């Protein structure tokens, strides 16, 4: 596929992880010209909706496109603008929960370093419509929290996020009562221990879930987001097993998706997944990269 080189910039790329028909697909990366990290796309009806932070991470913007391979000149809407005393709005993700649409994100405000928040769409069939004011998630979790996402397993929903509670950024999981209420227990699911996870600081972050043949897969990032070796790896758990028990998970040794020095592509982390029209392809990955690090 063609690539548009943007020097020293975080760009949003698309990669289709399938073994057939790739040669028939033609598109240009990056898929949008604005610069932003931590992209996420959800297909609603006949359109794709990309959520990113813009204007110095102060505006949460939704882009709408009928095709996944380009959001250039796409219709857009600012769903939320952070208050003047807030900063660093990161990693927004749109999810459908029990027939309603929600956007989960993190921001720092009132002296608190990154806490999780959620918005609800006024009309679940129209992501470009109005959204609620933000509601604080985990209000009694007095630690930084970023990269929140949803896991669906054994007909139960779980909230999974990253926190520096133990001194390094690690991944936590807790059951959900509903889209805006997180239950207990809160379990430390994974912390960085391998060499590839500790470039410029030991980090596990950016979890996202895909599902296949009764197995739930958690794709996550390791190493610092500014380290050129920032990469993706995987944990998985079979249906029927309790995800709140870390011993029930299988882990991959090392990264699965990493830098390509020959192509000057680095920082291949924090991915999200979506589907093609008709759910034909289940493994379309939207990710950030840095070119010419």
Automatic annotation (TrEMBL):
Keyword Transmembrane helix: no
InterPro entries xref list: Glyco_hydro_43 (IPR006710), Glyco_hydro_beta-prop_sf (IPR023296)
Keywords: Glycosidase, Hydrolase, Signal
CDD domains, per the entry: GH43_LbAraf43-like
Gene3D superfamilies according to UniProt: Glycosyl hydrolase domain, family 43 (2.115.10.20)
Secretion signal span: 1-23
Pfam families according to UniProt: Glyco_hydro_43
Family designation: Belongs to the glycosyl hydrolase 43 family.
The name this protein goes by in its record: Extracellular exo-alpha-(1->5)-L-arabinofuranosidase
Organism per entry: Orchesella dallaii
């Amino acid at each position: 596929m063609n690539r548009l080189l943007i020097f020293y910039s975080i760009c949003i790329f698309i990669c289709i992880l399938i073994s057939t028909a790739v040669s028939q697909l033609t598109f240009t990366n990056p898929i949008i010209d604005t610069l932003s990290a931590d992209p996420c796309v959800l297909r609603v009806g006949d359109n794709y909706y990309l959520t990113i932070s813009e204007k110095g991470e102060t505006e949460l913007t939704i882009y709408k496109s009928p095709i996944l391979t380009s959001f250039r000149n796409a219709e857009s809407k600012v769903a939320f603008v952070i208050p003047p005393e807030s900063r660093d709005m990161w990693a927004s993700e749109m999810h459908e929960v029990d027939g309603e649409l929600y956007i989960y994100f993190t921001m720092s405000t009132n002296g608190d370093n990154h806490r999780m928040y959620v918005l609800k769409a006024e009309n679940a069939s129209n992501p470009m419509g109005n959204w609620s004011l933000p509601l604080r998630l985990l209000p009694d979790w007095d630690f930084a929290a970023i990269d929140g996402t949803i896991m669906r397993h054994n007909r139960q929903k779980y909230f999974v996020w990253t926190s520096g509670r133990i001194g390094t950024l690690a991944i936590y999981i807790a059951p959900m009562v509903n889209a805006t209420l997180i239950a207990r227990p809160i379990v430390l699911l994974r912390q960085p221990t391998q060499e590839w996870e500790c470039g410029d600081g030991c980090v596990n972050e950016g979890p996202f879930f895909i599902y296949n043949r009764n197995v739930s897969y958690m794709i996550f990032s390791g190493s610092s987001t500014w380290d050129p070796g920032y990469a993706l790896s995987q944990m998985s758990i079979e249906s029927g097993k309790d995800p709140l028990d870390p011993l029930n998970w299988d882990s991959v040794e090392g990264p699965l998706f990493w830098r390509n020095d020959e192509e000057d592509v680095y920082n291949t982390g924090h991915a999200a997944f979506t589907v093609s029209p008709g759910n034909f392809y289940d493994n379309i990955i939207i990710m950030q990269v840095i070119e010419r690090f």
